[in-house]
Specification:
23% strand, binds magnesium ion, binds adenosine-5'-diphosphate, elongated, alpha+beta, 8-stranded mixed β-sheet, 608 residues, 33% helix
């Protein structure tokens, strides 16, 4: 038999590659926009005709190409962006495979014009289905223009499979969004059939999101920001009340590259859990900045899927970041006193400029301990929105306004144990909830979740600062645990020690508890420990990977006062004070809402 294997001609190889790279007009738009961004352009124009079927043209003012580079750029695997394997681990550019221009030119008629800074003349190249038709010097401005005409003119089967103009234009718009969103400093314009669809100035990230999604987003966006050693997360999430019935605006970017990541999407949904209705989806634009060596972008030819070296860690960090933002901004709109009709600024004297009230609360203040509050004042923190709201919550409206007029600030001392009948008028409902009459409605706080939040933040601080923890020595109690619980207990013994426990393994499944945190009653040591272990186990099941956090959540849940416990007025007040000194008072450590606000309007509506 004769030999049958043959090397494919370049044009065929390119067409095969094009099958992966260029599936539809939108894919060409993506590649060309990316090239323009990589070229350092500050202004990029996208001109499309008939949803890209007739023309896709991208004009940039970037660095342009030399005559030789212009010709080479159409060769397969021709790229200026990487030189050796090692470079694959430090990619900062959008492209790097050197396949796009070659693939596009194999399935369309392409005209390239390009000129570098300082050159008199540029280069013009015309290619049809990989065939160079002409190459000559030309007059053009600095930068590059690539016109892609009659896409798939030589692959009728593919042209036939293109969808309606509407659908193809939607895909193009989507690609345009994915690039324009995260390059707000670049001016973009987008024309379709001579109609301008978008004209974007150089602007801030937030302005760019609003420019693309519409003005209504002004009120919806809440920033998110979180930095840990190897990744910086920033961006915006939409408030839960604007969750959508379809998975609309969900954008992740890694080093400015749009990615899909169901696992990370799950982290966001998880953070929104219970705050949005079933079958609704949160909107977000979230960016990750990280060293490219910690990611592998190369696992998918069109590069919207990527792999992180430590996905679980990313999940945890993202979940915490979103929760923090939800906490810091979100459940609060109902606590927005300026919208309370009762609290109209026109009651204030003329020419009076209201001053933002500030409040300082000692975060490590433990009302169950009779300490001298003033001593701790040095450490008092300046908390923002919530506490400001809380300050207003504390008093009847007249005194809210009075306080404002006096320009005084209120400090944590004002809530101290001693002055237990000041401001706050609360009562307990169903031995589960603390109800407070506030300026903006009835505040209903779940006592158990509130206490879980308070303890959780306290433990987290203790872990982070390695603080010495107040401890009570016990008459050593000898306790037995089940085999699994004993195993877990052994594993977390050193961590428990940092949090005020002193437990010794007596061998087999027996332990001696010699000391416990002050909050734990001596008679409840065993039940509290069992509860901590159960919570820790379910934390592992729920993928609460970070051991320290899992322990802090478990301890908080195990030790929190439970529903069904009667609370004196002073205790109610102490708990509220501590809760509103927390960073995220709205959510329990397990992500459940801690309180709700029933406005007068709502009550009024119900009674109608
Ligand atoms: P890649 O972007 O993966 O390198 P492409 O086929 O998209 O591969 O482009 C090949 C090369 O052509 C790029 O590496 C770049 O050097 C050059 N190039 C393409 N488009 C432009 C542009 N708009 N401005 C300047 N250079 C460009
Ligand atoms: Mg490219």
């Amino acid at each position: 038999m004769s030999d049958v294997i043959r090397l494919l001609p370049d044009s065929v190889a390119n067409q095969i590659a094009a099958g992966e790279v260029v599936q539809r007009p939108a894919s060409a738009v993506k590649e060309l926009l990316e090239n323009a961004v990589d070229a350092g352009s500050t202004e990029i124009q996208l001109v499309v005709k008939d949803a890209g079927k007739t023309l896709i043209q991208i004009i940039d003012n970037g660095k342009g190409m030399s005559e030789t580079d212009a010709r080479l750029s159409f060769e397969r695997h021709a790229t200026s962006k990487i030189r050796e394997t090692q470079d694959l681990f430090s990619i900062r550019t959008m492209g790097f495979r050197g396949e796009a221009l070659a693939s596009i030119a194999s399935v369309a008629q392409v005209e390239l014009r390009t000129k570098q800074e300082g050159e008199e003349l540029g280069t013009e190249i015309r290619i049809e289905g990989s065939d160079v038709k002409s190459q000559k010097p030309c007059q053009c401005s600095k930068g590059t223009s690539v016109a892609v005409k009659n896409l798939f003119f030589n692959v009728p089967a593919r042209r036939q499979f293109l969808k309606s103009d509407n659908v193809e234009l939607k895909h193009i718009t989507e690609e345009f969004f994915r690039i324009a969103l995260v390059h707000p400093n670049i001016k973009f314009s987008f024309y379709h059939n001579e109609k301008c669809l978008h004209n974007l100035e150089s602007e801030s990230f937030k302005e760019r999101i609003i420019a693309l999604f519409g003005d209504v987003y002004k009120k919806r966006l809440v920033p998110i920001e979180q930095s840990v050693s190897h990744v910086k997360i920033f961006g915006f999430i939409c408030k839960p009340e604007f969750a959508m019935k379809t998975k609309g605006e969900q954008y992740f970017f890694v080093n400015n590259r749009f990615i899909r990541h169901p696992y990370l999407n799950h982290a966001v949904s998880q953070a929104f859990d219970e705050l949005i209705a079933e079958k609704s989806y949160p909107s977000y634009v979230i960016c990750f900045e990280m060293d490219p060596k910690n990611i592998d972008i190369n696992i998918h030819p069109t590069k919207t899927e990527i792999k992180f070296l430590d996905e679980k860690l990313m999940y945890g960090v993202l979940l915490a970041a979103v929760k923090k933002s939800i906490g810091a901004y979100n459940l609060a709109p109902s606590l927005d006193f300026l919208t309370n009709p009762k609290y109209q600024p026109d009651i204030l004297p003329q020419n009076y400029t209201p001053k933002t009230p500030t409040i300082r609360v000692n975060p490590s203040y433990n009302p169950f301990e009779k300490t001298n509050f003033s001593e701790n004042r040095k450490q008092q923190l300046n908390q923002q929105a919530y506490l400001e709201s809380f300050e207003l919550l504390q008093k009847p409206i007249e005194s809210c306004i009075q306080k404002e007029i006096e320009h005084t600030t209120i400090s944590g001392e004002d809530f101290a144990v001693e002055d237990d009948n000041a401001y706050l008028d609360s009562f307990q409902f169903s031995k589960k909830y603390i109800v407070v009459d506030t300026c903006s409605g009835l505040l209903i706080v779940c006592q158990q979740r509130a206490h879980e939040r308070v303890l959780f933040e306290k433990f987290q601080k203790q872990i982070a600062n390695r603080q010495t923890v107040s401890q009570q020595k016990l008459f050593p109690q000898s306790l037995d645990f089940s085999a699994t619980n004993a195993e877990i207990l052994n594993e977390i013994l050193p961590n428990l020690k940092d949090l005020g426990w002193d437990i010794e393994n007596l061998g087999h499944h027996s332990f001696s508890v010699n000391a416990a945190p002050t909050e734990v009653k001596e008679s409840e040591v065993q039940s509290v420990l069992e509860s901590i272990l159960e919570n820790f186990k379910s934390g592992i099941m729920l993928n609460r990977n970070d051991k320290q956090t899992n322990l802090a959540v478990s301890m908080a849940s195990g030790m929190a006062l439970k529903s069904g416990v009667t609370l004196e007025k002073t205790e109610q007040k102490q708990l509220l004070t501590q809760l509103f000194s927390c960073q995220v008072p709205q959510l329990s450590p397990k992500g459940k809402p801690v309180f709700t606000l029933l406005s007068e309007d709502e009550i009024h509506t119900r009674l109608n």
